[in-house]
Amino acid sequence: MNPEHRNPDLKPLFLTGAAAVAWALVYSNLEFLPDSFLRLTGLDRTTRFGEALYFFIYEAPKVLLLLTAVVFVMGVIHTFVSPDRTRAMLSGRRSGIGNAMAASLGIVTPFCSCSAVPLFIGFLQAGVPLGVTFSFLVSAPMVNEVALALLFGMFGWKVASLYLAMGLIVAVAAGMLIGKLGMERYLEEWVQQLQNSAVSSEFTSEPLRWHHRLREGFNHVREIVGKVWLYIVLGVGLGAGIHGYVPENFMASLMGSHVWWSVPLAVLIGVPMYSNAAGILPVVQALLGKGAALGTVLAFMMSVIALSAPEMIILRKVLKPQLIAAFAGVVATGIMLVGFVFNAVF
Question: Structure pTM?
Answer without folding.
Answer: 0.61
